[in-house]
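Appendix B, record 7
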Amino acid sequence: MQTPVRLSLVVPLCCGVAVSAFVLGRWTAGGRVDLSGGGSGRVLSVGPARAETPGGEAQGGRIEDVADRMAAVGREQLRRLDGERPSEHREDERLRMIERWAAVDPVAALDYARTNLEGDRRAQALTAVFTTWARHTPRAAWSWVTTHVPGEMPHLDEVIGEIGRSSPSLAAELASSWAQGHPSSGQELYLAALQGMAYSGKFAEASRVIGTVVVRDGEDRSGLVTFLAGQWARYQPAQAADWVKQLPEGATRDHAMMSLSVAWADADPEAAAQFAIGLPAGATRESALQQVVSKWLTVDPGQARNWVIDEGVHDDFDQAVTSIATQPQLMATQPALALQWAGNIIDDSVRFRCLSTVLSNLYARNPASALNYIRSSQDLTPDQRAEFLRRFPAP
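Structure tokens (predicted):
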């Protein structure tokens, strides 16, 4: 005996009939796909919750009748679809119909996809089913994947990611429960949930979730914080910066600062540079400035160089100045200027490595100019000059 289809709609009996008729109309008018899984048994009791009357009595009979009629129509439509010439359009139509089917009977839709499709088509269909199921009845979808395919992390990620889009608190609850029993995959699952939240712009909610994560160690948590900082900075950099600044001092905050700076530079390099220069002096600011200036150079090299000049070169600018001096276009068209920038680097070892790159490029184009710089520059120590003369002999 078939188990009745269960839908997550709590409505009076009269509305249930109307909704059923509407669903049938959409299927019969809109597409070609087998709704019954090619005649395989449907395990519908695992699907969405049944419609109930206000008194609590399930209205399963009529819904089951509609589902059976839908399945009969689907079998005929699938035969027609399979009889058509193979094409991208045919497969796209099949995928759309499977997705709509998943909203009504996800388990049967899964059965059809697993039985009748292969390769990328099968993977696309399974993704469509799991995300649709999670969108309509998230707890049921999560219960099914964790019970039937707990080792298939991509499917768990798809479900928790979709839940994260609409219900961050539920995603956090489910991810926490999973991580407690499966610590090795806890970070991956949390990351999928955060991706869903970020996709729908729920960054503040995601930041609160991170405060409650259950992961193996600080490194796993740091990865989640770094991810969110970068994603948030692409759309709300000021808010992301406020969040990162309040993190406890340490490696996690440093990595988040870097991720935020790089992502911010993609959208507004000047604003990102102002943020980076405002960081406390040290390695984190140096790395952030280097990343931001490097991004800025690809968009407006003149403006980036002028900003560095205006700010005044200091220790934390060494890596940023290296990015300027070794910019390919600058070395090719204005080698003297590239050498001048390299000579402004304060750290002796960093300056030597940067000059080596610029001189190597110049020597390949104009050996005489390179040798003239080596012999006359005041930016080189005697030992460095001797080393460069050894590396770049007179022709």
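Remarks on this record: The two ends are 92 Å apart (CA to CA). The chain has a mean pLDDT of 82.
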